[in-house]
Design a protein that fits this description.
By secondary structure, the protein is of the alpha+beta class. The chain contains 13 helices and eight strands.
């Protein structure tokens, strides 16, 4: 199925929606929320123009289940939009991601990463971190509707269409490129209230998706309860398992990175390097088995293993350049190893190229 495009509509047809007929935005352009093409959309036809669609949008809303692919990984179900819905989510995401973001947001911001988020907290004494339990699933259709109705000032009907379009089974889908930025903006009042609380106590706050971190000279007594109360007022729950107060002169773990007592640059935790070295050992064992003609591994399984290992090495190389050399070695052997498997399958014998194992 192709994405449907609405015919051109003269600007005079929607005088009240004249902001919709601006020139196409460049990828680098950002704007205030009240300058967004989504701001103050009053009529369905104007919405069709903005999203470049037709009234088939109602069929999509009524049959959302067929417009999602369901993928289960590590015990989690991920719903990824497809067909026309994928294009609609992509266009909405383009509009929302260009709205100017507050300085405390580090996720989904060009030029910033989890590493930058952790670095912010390396220079402070005490740190309090928490996250929101089931952030996407807790961002309900009602919360999304409220964002489009109150913040973006769309009409009730348009806000309802957008809320239906952006959610699945009454909540944000985990596999859509739209969900991360929409989850932030739909909950922006909560984040603003949390940031105001931080400023009142002379703390610095950062947000990375659902990870919220506060740092300063002193985390005041009762601060945890205040944060939990604000979350609750906005329909969210603090994740107690991921909530922790770090005292001065203690190691901190922020967005998966360790900051030592000296406040040095953040690094991955030991458990990450253990996982990486175990994968390297597994990689060496598989090569030895293939070399001796004893491996029954399929090509697709091998590619998945190597892709996973390359991902781990890419991550590690951000902190230690030696892992770039390890990655190059594995990439060099990849095609030869695939050819070896193919030849073994054809000839049913243990012929293979020589391979020098990588030291974990």
């Amino acid at each position: 199925m192709d994405i449907l495009f609405a015919p051109a509509v003269p600007a005079c047809a929607y005088r009240q929606e004249e902001s919709l007929f601006k020139p196409k935005l460049s990828h680098s352009k950002s704007y205030e929320w009240f300058n967004s093409p989504l701001f103050k959309i009053r009529y369905e036809k104007a919405l069709f123009v903005v999203l470049r669609t037709t009234d088939k949008i109602f069929f999509i809303i009524d049959n959302k289940n067929i417009y999602y692919n369901m993928i289960e990984t590590k015990g989690r179900v991920c719903h990824t939009p497809c067909y026309e819905l994928k294009g609609l989510h992509s266009r909405l995401a383009q509009f929302l991601v260009r709205i100017k973001k507050p300085r405390y947001l580090y996720s989904g911001v060009k030029g910033l990463s989890y590493l930058d988020n952790a670095r912010v907290h390396s220079v402070y004494y005490e740190t309090f971190k928490t996250d929101i339990l089931g952030f996407y699933s807790a961002t309900t259709q009602a919360i999304v509707f409220k964002f489009f109705r109150n913040k973006m000032q769309c009409s009730h009907k348009v806000a309802n269409i957008l809320a239906e379009l952006c959610t699945l089974e009454g909540k944000l889908p985990t596999g859509s490129q739209l969900s991360m930025i929409l989850a932030f903006w739909a909950n922006s009042d909560m984040f603003e209230q949390l940031n105001q609380l931080a400023q009142e106590h002379h703390l610095v706050m950062t947000v990375y998706v659902d990870d919220i971190t506060f740092s300063g000279a002193k985390i005041p007594a009762g601060f945890r309860q205040q944060v939990a109360q604000i979350m609750s007022e906005h329909g969210h729950t603090m994740n107690k398992k991921k909530t922790r107060l770090y005292q001065a002169n203690s190691h901190k773990e922020i967005t998966g990175l360790i900051i030592n007592r000296a406040g040095d640059s953040p690094i991955p935790p030991n458990r990450f390097y253990l996982k990486l070295h175990n994968k390297l050992a597994e990689f060496n064992q598989i090569y030895a088995e293939i070399k001796n003609g004893k491996s029954k591994m399929e090509e697709d399984t091998l590619r998945q293993l190597i892709n996973h290992l390359i991902g781990l090495l890419n991550y590690a190389s951000q902190f230690d350049k030696k892992y770039k050399l390890v990655k190059k070695h594995i990439q060099k052997q990849h095609d030869d190893l695939i050819q070896c498997l193919q030849k073994q399958g054809e000839e049913k014998r243990g012929f293979c190229i020589e391979f020098t194992p990588v030291a974990p």
